[in-house]
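Quick sanity check, Beta-lactamase:
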Amino acid sequence: MEKAKVQTGIEQFFKKRVEKDAKIQNAYLRVHSEKHGIDFQMATGKEAIHSEQPFYIASISKLFTSVLFGQLVEQGYCSYEDKISKYLDAEILTNLHIYKEKDYSNEIKIRHLLNNTSGLNDFVEDKPVKGKSMPDLLVDEPNRIWTPLEVINWAKENMKNHFPPGRGFHYSDTGYHLLGFIIENISGLPFHEVLRKNIFEPLEMKHSHFSRTEPIEKSPYEVAKFYIRQTDMTNSESLGILYAGGGIVSTTGDLLTFMKALVNGKMLKKETIEKMKNDCGKFFLGIDYGYGLMNIKTIPLLMPAKYNSWGNAGSTGSFMFYHPATDAYIIGTLNQFGYGQKGIRLMLQLADKLLKATKKVEVLL
């Protein structure tokens, strides 16, 4: 009975939060804790169809990319300390990282791209030196087809870099684009095939796939509508910009499978995961950014240890975190571009609800 109350309370909280925001058209949530016997999923919002509806997971995709690199490092195909010039063509490297009239392109290491310390621009959220921003281009030119290389060239022409490699932190989708190139170079396969071969198939993530490709098993539900400024972008050709930093479509169930495998050491060695978590830059106060993952850490008076968790989140309000204090996985999305921080805050609020609810259950038992 108490477990049912916990579930109902969290469901009602999530539903109310979504209903209060008129911009959110569909939202999805999965909460799973074996320790407390809690496991439920839900969909809410005017356009939500089913709790297992596939959706664009946005920058949660970066954790998949970093796992692929963890596998490559463990298998001896590359090192985190390798310079990216070892794996990238001259066409890509030319004028890639110019900062204060000095070229740092050949000094960037793989680890710099993974933890966003390369100093490279972010073609998604940085303001361009001229012309329209990338989100504006996506909305205004929905039928434009972008190749990954065209995106990099656009960033070179329209964006400023921020600091020399290793000298700071700046979130960079441009960096994760480059990681996709490196994976293809090492494997000899298209990025989406590496994802499928190394992650989706071994974990039987049947409804997960890279944008514009097919899943292992077609979902009975259409991909949830994804919005940029109230414009439905779900089937826009321009979403081809979503490469190694944000191009995965998945479900809360498949994401739970992935995160459980990662937490339980079924994807990577423990020492690799610790490296991914601890070699990090400062993302926000209380949140470090390691190799494709956010590590929410204790800040005295501001962020108590009970909220410590790790996983990743995306600009659409997507989130996928493991919360050790409750042995819980909290996964979901708000499916609205520009909602990245709202998604993280909501995840922490859900963790707080779970902490209070499970504590009451433990007292009663």
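Posting the structure with no commentary besides this: The first strand starts at residue 27 and ends at 33.
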